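note to self: dont lose this again. the chain is below, predicted strucutre after it. 89 aa total, dont forget to put it in the shared folder this time
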Amino acid sequence: MKLTLEIVDGMTLEDIDHAYELLNVRRDYLARAKARTFSIGQKVSFPSRRGMTVTGTVEKVGPKNIIVKPDDDPRPWRVSPNLLTVHEK
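---
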């Protein structure tokens, strides 16, 4: 981490903009790769914004987000794949 701070400290504004773009591309790639590990019908859980754990079923797998139908709520949630945990049957 210290090396990263030293590198960033020596960057110009243009360098920072370029690094920002590269980081966004990498984050998108990782999110898409993680999303491909899920399939429709899988049981998953994730933490809600209020700190509770929501359990549900995958309804749709998008390129960056997963649509999850909670067990106790009729409204689906759009969830980042990085927040999901798979439940084995």
